[in-house]
Structures are given as structure tokens and as C-alpha cells.
Amino acid sequence: MQLKGKTAIITGSSRGIGRAIALKLGQMGANVVINGSSPSEALKKTEEELKAAGVNVVATVADVRKIEDVEAMINTAVNTFGSVDILVNNAGITRDKLMMRMTESDWDEVLDVNLKGAFLCTKAASKIMMKQKSGKIINITSVVGVIGNPSQTNYAASKAGLIGLTKSIAKELASRGINCNAIAPGFIETEMTDVLPENVKENYLNNIPQKRFGTPEDVANVVGFLASEEANYITGQVIHIDGGLVM
Ligand code: NAP
């Protein structure tokens, strides 16, 4: 129970990778704040699953694009559990299209959730972490933010931006006892990747040396490590979890 007494906020944790991270951190002993942008069956189900696993959990509906929602989510964490020790910026969306077909709103929506959302949550959580002189911030970026991808100009830009944000925050807050790292998953089996055409999936698989897609748990295990004291001397890094897809 390496995270006993710690409180973790995981944005976008109603399903997929965020859900697995919430479960992992909860199993490591953390109090867990889960989150979705709107009330959903998935959010309710994840809350019930965590409770059944013996995790101290509270579910919040907060749109990470909105500062008032973000502040309310942070307040819920503090009022319920007394602190914010770990922030996982995981909420993310795609609006995939070739650049010539991509609209301004496709661009804005993706940048607003994936990048501005992480900025707002990081700023709000950091206020608390700076006072307590400790904290772990973990940003879920993507290998696409490192190597680019056709039809994902908006998504790749948001994820590359998140890497710049990670390194800047790591430098800015290191002296306050706060670590900030990024995780770059490759192809992970979730609802986000479910919708991709079979030929796209096959193409990915052919290029993964380990010849399998990742699971949300593959990502959650590394988040668990980065959130723990064992990772105290790691900051400003981007850790790939991709079966060797990008190296
Ligand atoms: P997913 O299954 O589509 O889940 C996305 C989560 O984000 C949901 O809980 C969703 O909740 C939440 N969300 C979306 N917009 C939000 C907003 N404005 N405010 C708060 N929450 C919001 O996605 P996933 O595959 O688990 O991906 C999780 C993260 O990993 C994303 O950042 C994604 O870019 C990244 N990633 C995924 C893969 C992959 O292969 N799956 C690879 C690399 C990186 P609501 O439905 O309530 O909005």
C-alpha cells in the first residue's frame, strides 16, 4: 500500500485507461477522485467497481475545459480527503480527419480538452501541492505527439504540446518537491481505438515488435510507479508504453 494516505485525481476516468489508473492507484492505497465530463453510466459503474474493491472513491462531473469545473473538482478532493497529492491528466478526445477536411472546431475541441484541460488542472492542483511541498503530476500524452500521424494533426499537436508542458512544469516546480512526467502510450485497446478501421489496426500491429496491442493495465502499472516514492528522482521524462512501436 505504497500510496496509503495520498489522494489522487484522475481526469477522464469513467472508462478506458483512466479507469484502470484509478483502480491501480486505489489498490496501492490512494484515495481516488474519478472524473468524467458529464454524468454517465460508465462513471457510476467505475465508482461502484472501485468501492467494491475497497477503494475510497468520490466521482466528480467536471469538464476539464472549464476553470470553474476544475476548481470544483479540486475542492471536492480537498473537502473529501484533505489534499491533492497526485494528478493524472488523462482526459482526452480525438477528432480524426485529414488536415484539409479538419475544421476549426475539430482543432479547438481537441486542443481545449487535451492541452488546455491539462493546463487548468495542473495549475489548480499545483497551488495545493506547492503549499505541501510535494506532488506528482503525470500527463498521458501519446506516441503520436512524438512521431506525428496523418489525420491527427490536431491530436498530435495537443499531445506534443503536453510534452512541452510536462518539461516546463518539471523545471518550474522541481524546487517545490513536485515531479511532472508524461507517459506516451502506443496503441491501447479502449473505446478510443475500437472505432479505428481494421486495416489501420492491422498496420499498427505489424509495426509493434511485441506483436500485441497494449492494455489499460499496461499504462496503469507505470502510472502507479511514477506516482510512488520510488520514482522521486524522475522528472520531466516521457515514458513510452508501446510494445516497442516507437524507439
Ligand atoms: P476513452 O476510452 O475515450 O476515455 C476518455 C475519457 O476522457 C472518458 O472518461 C471521458 O469521459 C473523458 N473525457 C473526455 N472529454 C472530457 C472532458 N472535457 N472533461 C473531462 N473528461 C473528459 O479514451 P482512452 O483510450 O482511455 O484514452 C485516455 C487517454 O489516453 C487520452 O488522453 C488519450 O489521448 C490517451 N491515449 C490513448 C491511447 C489509446 O490507444 N487508447 C493511446 C495514446 C494515448 P466522458 O465520456 O464523461 O467525457
List low-pLDDT spans.
none
CATH class: Alpha Beta
User: Got a strand count?
Assistant: 7
Mean pLDDT across all amino acids: 98
Major sheet summary line: 7 strands, parallel
C-alpha geometry: globular
Evaluate the radius of gyration.
17 Å
Small-molecule binders: NADP nicotinamide-adenine-dinucleotide phosphate
* Structural class assignment: alpha/beta
Question: Could you give the order of the helices and strands?
Answer: EHEHEHEHEHHEHHHE
Q: What would you call the quaternary organization?
A: single chain
CATH homologous superfamily caption = NAD(P)-binding Rossmann-like Domain
> Can you list the strand order of the major beta sheet?
3-2-1-4-5-6-7
Tell me what the CATH architecture is: 3-Layer(aba) Sandwich
| Number of domain modules | 1
Jot down its keywords:
247 residues, alpha/beta, Rossmann fold, seven-stranded parallel β-sheet, 9 helices, binds NADP nicotinamide-adenine-dinucleotide phosphate, NADP, KR_dom, lipid metabolism, steroid metabolism
Task: Compose a concise summary of this entry.
Keywords: Fatty acid biosynthesis, Fatty acid metabolism, Lipid biosynthesis, Lipid metabolism, NADP, Oxidoreductase, Steroid metabolism. By secondary structure, the protein is of the alpha/beta class.
Structure, described:
This protein has a single domain (7-241), classed as NAD(P)-binding Rossmann-like Domain (Rossmann fold). A 7-stranded parallel sheet has the order 3-2-1-4-5-6-7, with helices on both faces. With 247 residues, the protein is an alpha/beta fold. The mean pLDDT is 98. The chain contains 9 helices and 7 strands; from the N terminus they run E-H-E-H-E-H-E-H-E-H-H-E-H-H-H-E. Helix 1 crosses helix 9 (216-227), helix 3 (67-81) runs parallel beside helix 4 (104-132) and helix 4 packs parallel to helix 6 (153-173). NADP nicotinamide-adenine-dinucleotide phosphate is lined by residues 11-18, 35-38, 40, 63-65, 90-93, 113, 117, 140, 142, 185, 187-188, 190-193. It catalyses: a (3R)-hydroxyacyl-[ACP] + NADP(+) = a 3-oxoacyl-[ACP] + NADPH + H(+). One of its GO terms (molecular function) is 3-oxoacyl-[acyl-carrier-protein] reductase (NADPH) activity. This is 3-oxoacyl-[acyl-carrier-protein] reductase.
